Amino acid sequence: MFADLLKRLTQPDPPPLPETDARRALAALLVRVARSDGDYAAAEAELIDRILAARYTLSPFEAPKLRAEAEQLESEAPDTVRFTRAIKDAVDYEEREGVIEALWSVVLADGHRDEEETGLLRLIANLLGVNDRDSALARQRVESRQA
């Protein structure tokens, strides 16, 4: 199902992703961060559904379907470097900032910052070309909403 997308992601110079593939790739990145601490909780999956529904104006039935596709894609996806490079090429900076904010939401969903999740998020932000300041501001926005 995702063979063509994965093939494009693993090319040395991947072409820009079509909108549907960019959605799947971004959703898979949310799943990758949620799974990074070895505890992919139901609350994280539900949060990913809410993020996807809000970001892409999806129905309560479409968001879990996209997440399920993303879970499969994430498990088959290449290393994070190639994965994020393809996303970076397909998505403008402002949208990537929004992705970082969504990723921080997932990292902070359980009320604490796990070292593995935080480290992966810092790597992802860097690979997506989002600078440290903008990533920190995204984290602060998420933390202020949770307070």
Description:
The chain has 147 residues and is mainly alpha-helical. It has one domain: TerB-like (Orthogonal Bundle). The protein is 73% helix and 0% strand. It has eight helices and no strands. It is globular.
Strand count, sense and barrel status of the largest sheet are: none
Using the coordinates above, name the CATH class.
Answer: Mainly Alpha
Structural class: mainly alpha
Shape: globular
- The Rg value, from CA coordinates, equals 14 Å
Number of strands: 0
Q: What is CATH's topology name?
A: TerB-like
Arithmetic mean of pLDDT: 85
CATH homologous superfamily descriptor: TerB-like
What CATH architecture do you see? Orthogonal Bundle
User: First CA to last CA: what distance?
Assistant: 41 Å
Helix coverage percent: over 70%
Runs in which pLDDT lies below 50 for 5 or more consecutive residues are none
Number of helices: 8
Portion in strands: under 5%
Order of helices and strands: HHHHHHHH
The total domain count is 1
Q: Which features characterize this protein?
A:
single chain; 147 residues; mainly alpha; TerB-like; 8 helices; 73% helix; globular; TerB family tellurite resistance protein
What does the secondary structure layout of this molecule look like, with pairings?
Layout: H1 3-9, H2 19-35, H3 42-56, H4 62-76, H5 80-90, H6 93-107, H7 115-127, H8 132-146
Helix pairs in contact: 2-3, 2-4, 2-5, 2-6, 3-4, 6-7, 6-8
